[in-house]
UniProtKB/TrEMBL annotation:
<dbReference type="InterPro" id="IPR000812">
    <property type="entry name" value="TFIIB"/>
</dbReference>
<keyword id="KW-0238">DNA-binding</keyword>
<keyword id="KW-0158">Chromosome</keyword>
<dbReference type="GO" id="GO:0016251">
    <property type="term" value="F:RNA polymerase II general transcription initiation factor activity"/>
</dbReference>
<comment type="similarity">
    <text>Belongs to the TFIIB family.</text>
</comment>
<dbReference type="GO" id="GO:0005634">
    <property type="term" value="C:nucleus"/>
</dbReference>
<dbReference type="GO" id="GO:0061733">
    <property type="term" value="F:protein-lysine-acetyltransferase activity"/>
</dbReference>
<dbReference type="GO" id="GO:0000979">
    <property type="term" value="F:RNA polymerase II core promoter sequence-specific DNA binding"/>
</dbReference>
<dbReference type="GO" id="GO:0005694">
    <property type="term" value="C:chromosome"/>
</dbReference>
<dbReference type="InterPro" id="IPR013150">
    <property type="entry name" value="TFIIB_cyclin"/>
</dbReference>
<dbReference type="InterPro" id="IPR023486">
    <property type="entry name" value="TFIIB_CS"/>
</dbReference>
<dbReference type="GO" id="GO:0097550">
    <property type="term" value="C:transcription preinitiation complex"/>
</dbReference>
<keyword id="KW-0805">Transcription regulation</keyword>
<comment type="function">
    <text>General transcription factor that plays a role in transcription initiation by RNA polymerase II (Pol II). Involved in the pre-initiation complex (PIC) formation and Pol II recruitment at promoter DNA. Together with the TATA box-bound TBP forms the core initiation complex and provides a bridge between TBP and the Pol II-TFIIF complex. Released from the PIC early following the onset of transcription during the initiation and elongation transition and reassociates with TBP during the next transcription cycle. Associates with chromatin to core promoter-specific regions.</text>
</comment>
<keyword id="KW-0539">Nucleus</keyword>
<dbReference type="InterPro" id="IPR036915">
    <property type="entry name" value="Cyclin-like_sf"/>
</dbReference>
<dbReference type="GO" id="GO:1990841">
    <property type="term" value="F:promoter-specific chromatin binding"/>
</dbReference>
Amino acid sequence: AGTAVAVKMASTSRLDALPRVTCPNHPDAILVEDYRAGDMICPECGLVVGDRVIDVGSEWRTFSNDKATKDPSRVGDSQNPLLSDGDLSTMIGKGTGAASFDEFGNSKYQNRRTMSSSDRAMMNAFKEITTMADRINLPRNIVDRTNNLFKQVYEQKSLKGRANDAIASACLYIACRQEGVPRTFKEICAVSRISKKEIGRCFKLILKALETSVDLITTGDFMSRFCSNLCLPKQVQMAATHIARKAVELDLVPGRSPISVAAAAIYMASQASAEKRTQKEIGDIAGVA
């Protein structure tokens, strides 16, 4: 264990001394690490920038067991089965060491391999999906389902003309519904750069293209989260849940969305308690006017 810590610390100190590596064509792009190859890759053009980099992130070795058995203390990044090659195909960048050039001074590896345009598009979409999910604290299983949905839609080419960001946002909305943790269109819209209307359009097109469906949402799907975001006590939440359930059972709100019914029930329950909330406060949380 002591050896592992020493190796890890030494690697970290060496990397701290390295200058910041950037893509010459896209200097503002955030580079992606290819953990297996130890390279830094530009997500915009697939260029490997600089020489091989020591990874101090997800993989480290203890050198405690040289046998061929599986070492549980060795952790690394796995392949991405959703990409065509299972990994990032890359364009080899300009090396700086002597080994990167032949006897005539020409680069040996320039343009050796290139990432396919479809893999690059999917990689960018997966990155956007992860960013959106992180912003609203969604678990990994939601991200995985969203990635799979996006891949199916992308490969079917059934939403040609629609922006990949819009498709990714709609896939995230669908994945949340399918996993039983629905989010409103407004919540998805808030963490993306896509309008609520466009996400809604893509949502309907994806359901049709994949011939799939989602469970109907109910007031109960949102009640706990809305009340929590409004800092309302449990008693108010229970009262609002009762009001919403009775309104639906008695058919008092035909045609109304469950989100609107939940918001109205919360308003009524809060007004009957000491923890009053305004219509605007509730509307901002629920995404309704």
